[in-house]
Design brief:
homodimer, 16 helices, TIM Barrel, four-stranded antiparallel beta sheet, 434 residues
């Protein structure tokens, strides 16, 4: 008997318009050829599928699935102060764990294998990620309002966890100073020093609203971009979510520094904070990834939708159907999004991390299949995705994530507990809506 | 033995936050109660589902599924002249039949039970609609470029078919004068006379581009809206697709006449023709339905996506998250869309036509289920829809339309034939792209 040559072999799958065999060894693509010789521990017949790169979500708050649809359609400050913040005050670690697992199931169904997360109780997020086989950059959240004691704890947590390997390298720890209006310069500078020392991602909100820019000028005499530059945080390992309100000079600076801008088109529109100018960012040479933001504002975690919405709104904004072609926005959600967060994935190519989707060639909305890349941006939905491979492992097959029924029902339970706690809090006289 | 009281009975299904039994007799909801007594020819256990209204697509060209993704991301005139028109010149009746069946499968999967269609070879569309159990208003297309002979044939076809009942009343015939730049006043006036006589829908494109309005002023000395008014076509049975470029006075006139405006948010953005001002249309009191347009420009037929895109772009355009609330845009896609096209559906209520969706309560992206209506607009996709009921009949169950594998493969074949014909035409020297 021969030893197994590969761990996973997908036979006769459509790749770039041709039938190929795709072999995976460990967590990387080992061999892609018309016919891969040898055997494998597991073989998938790819005849019914195309193999395509999966999606990398550049900005989210995963556990906020529990707040999906809560306080919709309210003015921004009412939504935040009367709905989101009071509800978040009722979240327990178990709710966050359950909400994050729900988020991961939703992400896998819609083809996402990585998320750049910023949320509380990071140990719960790690647990959920380890169990379900997805990748994540998990940000240790820093805000001055936490107070010195909790900031020191968070810093210690980062220093302890940041150096270790988690989940076979699928989890990286990031620093997540929340935003320039919640984090002071000393704390940003500490992040910059840690980033210098460890090479970690720094994940922050930047220029999400016009108000943020005005207030920053008033408080600091500089714009938010200039403030981050002054703190030493504009570099290729910093991921700035939103970046809606930028001047041309700021775009040029961000491009020169190779800072990653994460475009969250659905959240920006739903909260009506302004429109990220994708065309201008590309023209300036900025690195752009795509994100969904959290479910409280997005209201889902579907990167397919984010691609389509980014493309359509860019065309509408420019009044030109020829801007933002499908292949460009597709690259943002796949290989450029992966690279932006330091993940060597997003391409079906030998040597790269073995992350992939098998999409059903018989999906009605993928016909005619000859324009597949366009369809993945403009017509596909989660029903087209059969199988998700992350880090060389099959994490969803036949549109089913193992254990998903229980994950969904436990998240539903957690949501019931949460809204009961919110109601109790309201009954006790705190100013919250149910 | 007792006679069967009802034809279809859905037991213990979630409706408006309560568990109910929903009984259908013939093609109408007969009884909705906590417990419906008696028996039924067919019983569905609704425990895992919520029952909600389905969607009514106000404007499409169904058979254009075969052109999905073809010539994407080109300037508008290049897209039309070098891709779409030459390809359409190669379409055969069989391709149109197969493309329409593919469209219907896609529509059923995404919860649509009615489409207002404007395309060639209407006999093929009727056949597809009759077979698959969906509803449609099928427009007999009129353009002056057809020439007198073919116009007379089309007029005769309308006069023959318009008076008959098709598919148990699921099919109505409409008149579809294409647009003010392709149809002269005499032909519009003929449509107005036929509409007066028969009460039929008149379905036309209106004010889709700024150019159309400019050219109309130059050619006729009036705007497109004024031209239709002059021809006697502004009334509650006229459905105007797009209506992007309107003045406040025109909105007031269209509201007074109760003319239906169909907002096609995805197509408008993809072709960058301008943004329909949904907020202004509602404020003026206009009737608004939602549509997808054809797959060549939309690029799918998913009304869920159209709802979400309409809501998000309205919020972004106004810079206010509190405009275009979920329930308002949901009404446009359901009961208002149905009424707009003269269909007595879109509500789960006794006496109404029995059109409904059963959505899966265990769908990850419908959690927490308490905000279901918001989720149907902002988070659901076709994977959430299990069962579609149209005109009292189950036309999709378990996410499967009977015969869909064959429908998809025959449509794929038709697309291959089409693109081969396009290539032949190009090789023969005609100026077309492949």
């Amino acid at each position: 008997m021969h030893a197994q040559t590969h761990d996973l072999l997908i036979r006769n799958v459509l790749l770039g318009g041709r039938r190929r065999d795709v072999a995976i060894a460990g967590n990387r693509f080992a061999c892609i050829a018309d016919r891969v010789p040898g055997d494998a521990s597991r073989v998938i017949d790819g005849t019914s599928f195309a193999i395509v790169p999966p999606y990398y979500n550049g900005h989210t708050h995963a556990a906020m699935t529990l707040l999906r649809g809560y306080g919709d359609d309210r003015p921004l400050d009412v939504w935040l102060r009367k709905y989101i913040w009071p509800a978040e005050a009722c979240l327990t670690p178990r709710m966050i764990y359950r909400g994050t697992r729900l988020a991961i199931v939703e992400m896998l169904h819609s083809g996402t294998v990585f998320f750049n997360d910023m949320y509380w109780e990071q140990a719960e997020t790690v647990r959920a990620v380890e169990e379900l086989g997805i990748r994540a950059a998990i940000g240790v959240v820093l805000l001055n309002v936490l107070g010195e004691q909790r900031i020191r704890e968070a810093q210690a947590r980062f220093q302890e966890w940041g150096g270790a390997t988690h989940a076979n390298g699928r989890v990286q720890f990031a620093l997540a100073p929340h935003a320039i209006y919640t984090v002071d310069e000393a704390l940003f500078r500490w992040c910059a020093r840690m980033q210098d020392r460890t090479g970690c991602l720094v994940h922050t909100h930047l220029c999400e609203t016009a108000r943020e820019v005005l207030d920053c000028r008033e408080a600091h005499g500089v714009t938010p971009v200039e403030l981050l530059e002054r703190c030493g945080l504009l570099n290729g390992r910093t991921v700035a979510a939103h970046a809606v309100h930028l001047t041309p000079a700021e775009r040029a600076l961000l491009a020169a520094r190779q800072t990653v801008l994460v475009h969250n088109p659905c959240s920006n529109s739903k909260l009506a904070v302004g429109c990220f100018d994708l065309t201008a960012a590309w023209q300036a040479g900025c690195r752009v990834a795509l994100g969904t933001d959290g479910c409280a504002s997005s209201n889902d975690l579907d990167m397919g939708y984010a691609m389509r919405f980014a493309a359509l709104t860019a065309k509408a904004a420019q009044g030109r159907p020829d801007v933002c072609p499908a292949e460009r926005v597709y690259a943002c959600a796949t290989r450029e999004g992966a690279r932006a967060c330091g993940v060597d994935g997003g391409e079906i190519a030998e040597g790269h991390l073995a992350d992939a989707l098998l999409v059903r060639l018989d999906s009605p909305r993928l016909q005619p299949i000859r324009h597949l890349e366009s369809h993945l941006v403009h017509a596909a939905d989660s029903a087209c995705i059969d199988t998700v491979i992350c880090d060389g492992r099959v994490v969803m097959q036949g549109r089913r994530v193992p254990g998903e029924e229980r994950i969904v029902s436990e998240a539903a339970e957690a949501a019931e507990e949460l809204y009961a706690a919110v109601a109790d809090r309201a009954a006790s006289g705190a100013n919250v809506h149910r």
